[in-house]
Amino acid sequence: MTVGEVLRGDRPSLARDILAAKVNGVPVDLSAVLTENAVVEPLTFASPEGREVYRHSSTHIMAQAVKEVFPSVQVTIGPALEEGFYYDFAFERPFTPEDLEKIEARALEIIKADRPFTRMDMPRQQGVGFFKERGEAYKVEIIEHFDDPMVSLYDQGGFIDLCRGPHLPSTGRVGAFKLLSTGGAYWRGDERNPMLQRIYGTSFPTKAELDAHLAKLEEIKRRDHRKLGKELDLITIQDEVGPGLVLWHPKGALVRLLIENFWREQHLKQGYELVYSPHVARLDLWKTSGHVDYYRENMFVPMNVEGSEYQLKPMNCPFHIMIYKSHLRSYRDLPIRYGELGTVYRYERTGVLHGLLRVRGFTQDDAHLFCRPDQIEHEVSRVLDFTFFMLKTFGFSEFEVYVSTRPDKAVGSPEKWAQATGALEAALKGRGVAYQIDPGEGVFYGPKIDIKIKDVLGRAWQCSTVQVDFNNPERFDLSYTGEDGKAHQPIMIHRALLGSIERFFGILVEHYAGAFPTWLAPVQAKILPITDKQRDYADSILARLRSSGARAEIDGRNEKIGFKIREAEKAKIPYMVVVGDREMESGTVSVRGRSGSNLGTMPVEGMVDLLNKDIAKTMQPA
Ligand SMILES: [Zn+2]
Ligand SMILES: [Zn+2]
């Protein structure tokens, strides 16, 4: 009996929803034969594993279509993604939009033909021969790296691909299918290898689900911080300056300043001491910290200064450690909390750079806490409260929290790990925060808590991290004098609340689609005189708004009022203050919100009040 027969027998009405199955926890095709008593579970589109089978089968369909339209391509690999799939092809040129249309049309025919996916198992060497004969050099290379004596191939009617499976029973099970975009990718992600041509696509059971997904992709494009960054004149990244290096234009810089001011103010309130450290330092510092051994590929090459090597800093930690070490410390001094908006430089490969989200120079909202082992839980609890307060203030209210535990390669005794991991979990439980365990995903030097925020489109972004470190206190020989008069080693906690200012700013731009809450808006009110006649009156309003602390500007250009309003709306300015003869005579202003709402005519003092109340409101956590 096949797995499919067993499952369909149990649930005839759901037969069409069942895509594949798990037998004793292992994903298999529905056509797999059941040879023993086993636990059989159906996989449907509702589960991540079911979706993976669905998208993964879809990418085989795309590969077949590409091979049929362009017989000279060689196939490489094609994994499922969370919301779709891609496949990398060796082809002499990038695929064009017209190519995609042809490929998509062909794929739809393959789906319509409802060809079964048939599995064939063969000895590895035979598999090598099979793909050699067909000129598929990449597949040959993949198989040659396998350890298994057997390999599996899947036939979907004329197109045979190397794959572990499982797949859908047939191509016709794909409901709605769409190719989305193309790109380049190096074979095995290595820039020394040939460039391949990648095609992205997605598939869903119904057209309605696909349409909803496409609408979301459009919304993501509309909110793209690289596009809005340019349109709103916030930031640029220019090739003449260097990839991954950010220029903050006045409006973006102002938002950054507001974020940083708020950050510093709150850190002082929370009992942190703020420090500054240099951007370069002796390489020896990073030899001691272990970065030269463990992190070198992400560091810029050192520079030689007067015969010794200096390094552009990839991390702030060693500097804070050296400040700690500059005095003798007693148990009474702990905890010590050093905070710094510290700019670091990391060598990220060109291919992974992405707007503000992945850059080469960025400012961590960094802090290092030095404490006694018995203080970990309390300190972590405080950091958690602080983190949620900060993130909520910036408008995020949904979080995903992970605790990463001891990896195979780790420093510090299992007892130390157990105590620190226990302290992290206790802090989360004490705060009533739900979390998941990421087994073995801790950094080699200690366990950590990672917090992801969910943006308005439901996308999760990793921002905050709290990491316990047993390693650096040892390497830098840190100590404090205990109550017993003897030297003890402090625990170090690395933490960032926003992650990096650049990345957080990029996330903020996308979360708000550039329409920052009033307290963060670079320009909060734009005064729009209808003609030159009201210019003096407009100037007096500007002076009044500025004296109340508001960020206001005048659009004094000789343009139609409708045009000025549209421009201010496009610039996403929260308030437009329109003044004509009527307003001037009565000492009032007409106020519009950026969403086009008419807030009415009010005295100038009413406008000042409105603005101040709005600013105060948005300074509170959402
Ligand atoms: Zn496959
Ligand atoms: Zn650190």
Helices, by number, come to 19
Output the structural class.
Answer: alpha+beta
- Overall shape: it is globular
Give a short account of the largest sheet. Answer: 8 strands, mixed
Listed once per kind, the bound small molecules are: zinc ion
Helix content: 25-40%
The averaged pLDDT comes out at 94
Report the C-alpha radius of gyration, rounded. Answer: 30 Å
Q: Segments where pLDDT lies below 50 for 5+ residues?
A: none
Report strand order across the widest sheet. 14-18-19-26-23-22-20-21
Ends apart, CA distance between termini: 57 Å
Annotation, overall tally of beta strands: 31
Amount of beta strand: 25-35%
